[in-house]
Automatic annotation (TrEMBL):
Name of the protein described by the UniProt record: Dihydroorotase
Annotated Amidohydrolase-related domain residues: 15-309
GO biological process: 'de novo' pyrimidine nucleobase biosynthetic process; 'de novo' UMP biosynthetic process
Residues that, per the record, bind Zn(2+) 1: 17, 19, 103, 251
Xref: Pfam families: Amidohydro_1
UniProt source species: Pelagerythrobacter marensis
Cellular-component GO terms for this entry: cytosol
Catalytic activity: (S)-dihydroorotate + H2O = N-carbamoyl-L-aspartate + H(+)
Keyword field contains Zinc: yes
InterPro entries: Amidohydro-rel (IPR006680), DHOdimr (IPR004721), Dihydroorotase_CS (IPR002195), Metal_Hydrolase (IPR032466)
């Protein structure tokens, strides 16, 4: 492959972790995702959370109603697991094609996770059923124990929760989502083929300095929080390596500007507007353009057991100016890379 091509054509990608929200911002947010991606794994952390089949069908209908004319976009729904989840409900949703996966939020680990799982032992029967039917489990992998420093919560999750879980249910299909550490890269790399990970654009671009040097920068704050530079380097190596265990999941998580710029700002980075352009810079800077299509468009569907998209999209080296702010149905939101110029643009 030419090392500095003017354009790059790949299969249309999918986003294996996105927050489309609900209500007045849903249409604007969905439009950005549908511009780039054919499918997306839609997170269920609404208020109240999407815990059952009927709620997921209703949410899917609201999303489909928000997809712009002419765009072909399929939302893949997830079930929010709680201590009280009924295994029959999860299995029924999967078998009826409503749920593509279920989502494990450790209680209080992140935005809208108060109803999450307080101990994986409480959902043992759900996880056993999922392993038996081959249903994927998406995991926000951070412990919430007060004795664990926030920068160590992902690493501690591996030894305290994930390793024991996979030892006892070795066939469970697990997506370790939005990984942020060299420890997670190492764990996923050495795990069996039923364990994979998604990586966000922000964790490939920024380390924790971006959040804390020269003033506190709430728009660089998300969970899991960005770590030291050595972790960012490990994530870039994993994403661009060509390994099928790592694939695209933006974790685009919009919050209103005033909810971020606050004494207690919300966690989440809104990267959906230019996610693909953002990822592509990383692959180009790593000299790994040849591995971009695998990460963006092939590894995810392969892991989920779905066919890759047949449609193609083209990115061109014409540049993208990222606005300082985006109006999402009347709600101002600051996007990732606000005010920057990215090198690539999706051909309209
Ligand atoms: N990533 C985040 O910082 N926030 C996400 C929740 C999540 O994915 O953990 C959100 O819903 O806002
Ligand atoms: Zn999360
Ligand atoms: Zn998320």
């Amino acid at each position: 492959m030419n090392e500095t091509p003017e354009s790059l054509t790949i299969r249309r990608p999918d986003d294996w972790h996105v927050h489309l929200r609900d209500g007045e911002v849903l249409a604007a947010v969905t439009t950005y995702t549908a511009r780039q991606f054919a499918r997306a794994i839609v997170m269920p952390n609404l208020a109240p959370p999407v815990t059952g089949v009927e709620a997921a069908i209703a949410y899917r209908d609201r999303i489909l109603a928000a997809v712009p004319e002419g765009a072909a976009f399929t939302p893949l729904m997830t079930a929010y697991l709680t201590d009280a989840t009924d295994p029959d409900e999860i299995a029924r949703g999967y078998e009826e094609g409503v749920f593509t996966a279920a989502k494990l939020y450790p209680a209080n680990a992140t935005t809208n996770s108060a109803h999450g799982v307080s101990d994986v032992a409480n959902i043992r029967s759900v996880l056993e059923r999922m392993a038996a039917i081959g249903m994927p489990l998406c995991i926000h992998g951070e412990v919430t124990d007060a004795d664990i420093d926030i920068f160590d919560r992902e690493k501690a999750f591996i030894s305290r929760v994930l390793e024991p879980l996979l030892l006892s249910l070795p066939d469970l299909k697990v997506i370790f989502e939005h990984i942020t550490t060299a420890d997670a890269v190492q764990f996923v790399t050495s795990a069996d083929s039923n364990v994979a990970a998604t990586i966000t654009p922000q964790h490939l671009h920024i380390n924790r300095n971006a959040m804390l040097v020269g003033g506190i920068r709430p728009h660089a704050y998300c969970l899991p929080v960005a770590k030291r530079e050595r972790h960012r380097i490990a994530l870039r190596e994993a994403a661009t390596s060509g390994s099928a265990k790592f694939f695209l999941g933006t974790d685009s998580a919009p919050h209103a500007r005033d909810a971020k710029e606050s004494a207690c700002g919300c966690a989440g980075i809104f990267n959906a507007p230019f996610a693909l352009e953002s990822y592509l810079e990383v692959f180009e800077d790593e000299g790994a353009l040849a591995n971009f299509e695998g990460f963006a468009s092939e590894h995810g569907p392969r892991f989920y057991g779905l066919a890759p998209n047949e449609e193609r999209i083209t990115l061109e080296r014409t540049g993208t100016q990222v606005p300082d702010e985006i109006d999402a149905g009347g709600t101002p939101i600051v996007p990732f890379h606000a005010g920057e110029t990215l090198r690539w643009a999706i051909r309209a």
